[in-house]
From TrEMBL:
Residues 6-247 form the BAR domain. Keywords: Coiled coil, GTPase activation. GO terms for cellular component: cytoplasm. It comes from Gulo gulo (Wolverine). It holds the Pfam family BAR_3. SUPFAM superfamilies: BAR/IMD domain-like (SSF103657). Residues 225-259 form a coiled coil. GO terms for molecular function: GTPase activator activity. This is BAR domain-containing protein.
Length: 290
């Protein structure tokens, strides 16, 4: 069920039915005002969350960019080169996505928050001001009318004419305030259809542009991802076969360690010398204690 219509002609009569229909519009405007306030609050929280997310992603991508992926040996295989470079490629992709997100965040206030706040303050606020004026003129008019009705017929003719003139003047003021208030209500209700919805459309358009940019980057990333998956699978397969060989060699070393003595004349170097120094120092300390 929609809002009841307001006719300018009803402003003159000011019937109870007119007041009731007027109140329906006032309730709806107040509901819209509260909704926009909440929407601005939630929108600000969303923008803040996007900003924090963007900062976290940038920090994450910077960590990927700075890490040096080292492999064993001087000569790297093609698979190792691809894997080592993958972190920098990941960082490049994330940075590209964040560029579009930053544009969305930078424009969000001008696109969404400011227009909604402007509509709430200028349009709904003007309707509230119109209501204040309407209520003020209404109170003045009906107060004077009540006094006039209580005037004694014995009053002088000049006094009665002056009272009639005052009533006509206050009624005209009330009528004009009523017309202006009805006009403003109708204006706000019509402007709500575009000035309220347009900022939401613009914000969503920017948000979907960001999503689309991410999709485009994902499409560009697909060939690299496939190649990297191939390199990773090769590395995994090589690891499994090499691991078995190394494990067999380790087991042979465990079972026949005498066959794998180092070519040096010494069995072990370095560590025993350190231990010998420690033993000597401990012996000297014990002698001093005795």
């Amino acid at each position: 069920m929609g809002l009841p219509t307001l006719e300018f002609s009803d402003s003159y009569l000011d019937s109870p039915d007119f007041r009731e229909r007027l109140q329906c519009h006032e309730i709806e405007l107040e509901r819209t005002n509260k909704f926009i306030k909440e929407l601005i609050k939630d929108g600000s929280l969303l923008i803040g969350a996007l900003r924090n997310l963007s900062m976290a992603v940038q920090k994450f991508s910077q960590s990927l960019q700075d890490f040096q992926f080292e492999c064993i040996g001087d000569a790297e295989t093609d698979d190792e080169i691809s894997i080592a470079q993958s972190l920098k490629e990941f960082a490049r992709l994330l940075i590209a996505v964040e560029e579009e997100r930053r544009r969305l965040i930078q424009n969000a206030n001008d696109v969404l928050i400011a227009p909604l706040e402007k509509f709430r303050k200028e349009q709904i606020g003007a309707a509230k001001d119109g209501k204040k004026k309407f209520d003020k003129e209404s109170e003045k008019y009906y107060s004077i009318l009540d006094k006039h009705l209580n005037l004694s017929a014995k009053k002088k003719e000049s006094h009665l004419q002056e009272a009639d003139t005052q009533i006509d003047r206050e009624h005209q003021n009330f009528y004009e305030a009523s017309l202006e208030y009805v006009f403003k209500i109708q204006e706000v209700q019509e402007k709500k259809k575009f000035e309220f919805v347009e900022p939401l459309l613009s914000f969503l358009q920017g948000l979907f542009t960001f999503y689309h940019e991410g999709y485009e980057l994902a499409q560009e990333f697909a060939p690299y991802k496939q190649q990297l998956q191939f390199n990773l699978q090769n590395t995994r397969n090589n690891f499994e076969s090499t691991r078995q060989e190394v494990e067999r060699l380790m087991q042979r070393m465990k079972s026949a360690n005498q066959d794998y003595r180092p070519p040096s004349q010494w069995t072990m170097e370095g560590y025993l010398y350190v231990q010998e120094k420690r033993e000597s120092q401990r012996h000297n300390l014990m002698s001093l204690m005795i």
